[in-house]
Amino acid sequence: LQISLLSLTHKDTLMLQRFLRHIETEKRYSTHTVNAYRRDIEQFVDFLKNNYETENLLSVDTEIIRSYIINMKDSGLENRSINRKISSLRTFYSYCLREKEIKIFPLTEIKSLKQPKELAKFIPEYDMLNISFEENDDFIIRRDELVIEILYQTGIRQSELRNIKDNDIDTNKQTIKILGKRNKERIIPIEKDLINLISRYLNLRNKQFPERKNNNLIVNNKGEESTPKFIYNIVHKILKEVTTVEQKSPHVLRHTFATHLLNRGADIRAIQKMLGHNNLSSTQVYTHNTIDKLKETYKKAHPYGDK
């Protein structure tokens, strides 16, 4: 891991390298997450240099952390972003304390800032039902259709979609094996129509790219592994045609999957397993949308609903 903080002391640099390697190899955080931690700590070091004329990470105390939070608030940063940066420092200094590189944990008295709870954005059912594709054997059309259908029918993340291999599809059991965060596997059931769509797509893909060098289910227009931006562009283009919802991303389809299941009476713990959430609280965010729908139904159906 390359550390760009050349002004850090040698001891601090080694400690930061060890920490980043720890969360990458032992905690199995994604490259994206590791880079986010690195950037957050780099920004904190810049703050130390500009305000305390030091870059010594291992001599930080609680007052410096408080000062950093005030500085971020004054710069106009939202509480959600500030909490994420503080969380990065909390994880880093917890590691330093465990490794006995510091004696006092500098964030003991630091609490997260209050932030408004945001409802998970989702696409209404009638918008999803309006999605349509031309009926032909064009590889790109069938591939784009499959991207939308898998994301909406399984609720998986775009990174999980990109990592699906051909042999992860079990046509007999009608399931897809998903490799989620921290390499945790889960099995998701799929319908026969989706199985048929996958089979049709595979025939077209194999004819289009008979000598491709990967075994990824979803490939780009050149038969190569897809990228996050590539998947995003497909989803955004298709959702733009059917909905006015502002967010038109793969993650919105994940929210849509969970919300639609809850609205139709699915058990929240079953949804938790399909989404790959470790904690039920992560899944419960979708119940807010369900409650709103119940309120709307009550107002329309109950004699006292409009009072």
Can you tell me about this structure?
The chain has helices spanning 10-26, 31-52, 62-74, 79-98, 125-129, 139-154, 158-163, 192-208, 228-240, 250-263, 268-275, 280-283, 287-301, and strands at 169-170, 175-179, 185-189. The model is unreliable at 1-6 (pLDDT under 50). A hairpin with a 4-residue loop joins strand 1 (169-170) and strand 2 (175-179). 55% of the residues lie in helices and 4% in strands. Helix 1 (10-26) packs antiparallel against helix 2, helix 6 packs antiparallel against helix 8 (192-208) and helix 6 crosses helix 10.
What distance separates the N and C termini?
Answer: 62 Å
Which stretches of 5+ consecutive residues score pLDDT under 50? 1-6
Helix fraction, binned, reads: 55-70%
Average pLDDT for all residues: 88
The topology string of helices and strands comes to HHHHHHHEEEHHHHHH
